[in-house]
Amino acid sequence: MDDFYKGVVEFLDKHNKIQTIQLYFIGIESLTNMATKVVEQLAIEYPENVSILKRMSQKEVANYQMNANVLLNFIAGDPSKGLIGAKSYVYAATKNPILTIPSIKNSSSTFFPERDIQFIAINHHEVSNYLNEVYSDYLQGIIRKTNITEDEIYQITREYNAYKMIDFINIFLNK
Q1: Which among 11, 16, 95, 138 is most buried, taking Cβ atoms within 10 Å?
Q2: pLDDT, averaged across the chain
Q3: Structural domain boundaries in the chain
Q4: Rounded to whole angstroms, how far apart are CA atoms 23 and 122?
Q5: pLDDT tens track for 127-172
Q6: Helix 2-14 and helix 124-139: axis angle, to 10°?
Q7: Is 12 exposed, middle or buried (0-12, 13-18, 19+ CB in 10 A)?
Q8: Regarding predicted confidence, which is higher, 133 or 175?
Q9: What is the pLDDT of residue 104?
Q10: How far are the Cα atoms of 42, 108, 140, 145 from residue 121, in angstroms, in the given order?
Q11: What are phi and psi of 13, to 5 degrees?
């Protein structure tokens, strides 16, 4: 969380807290943990940029996710060992880039490795630099979208994986 906090502060301070920069955190108002304390601190320090929104329906949350320039994913673990975070699957379907911050400082991942779907930041400078790149593109009228295909999106759905599990079970039942 320190890397996230320092990176966001560095980014917001560089841009003089411009109000067009908005960070939304949805449904965390009733939680109390290290992550929510950091977000609450950011909301106090940067009230024009950081909003903590109450819980909302999945449809409402999806609207925010679809319209985001970057989605944030904290991973408690090492992404190179397959610890991805459930949000990565939902976020990938939006085709918006994912800024991933793992607790284990490793920049490789098993989730679409070597692709533009997620950027893994392992220190606060990488967080700030990535946000600066995305914001620079935004100012030039460029909205980043990832190169994930519709077929790849389908392959990470519950429906697809349920069929794969059924096929796997049927192999053993038919032996």
Answers
A1: 11
A2: 90
A3: 2-146
A4: 20
A5: 999 999 999 999 999 999 999 999 999 998 888 889 888 988 998 8
A6: 40
A7: buried
A8: 133
A9: 84
A10: 19, 10, 24, 18
A11: -65, -35
Contact 25/50 with Cβ under 8 angstroms? yes
Amino acid code (one letter) for 122:
I
Q: What is the pLDDT of residue 141?
A: 95
At the topology level of CATH, where does 2-146 sit?
Rossmann fold (3.40.50)
Cα–chain center distance at 135: 16
**Could you tell me the pTM of the whole model?**
0.86
pLDDT tier for residue 34 given thresholds of 50, 70 and 90 = confident
* CA atoms of 140 and 100, how far apart (whole Å): 24
Angle (CA) 142 156 150, round 5°: 50
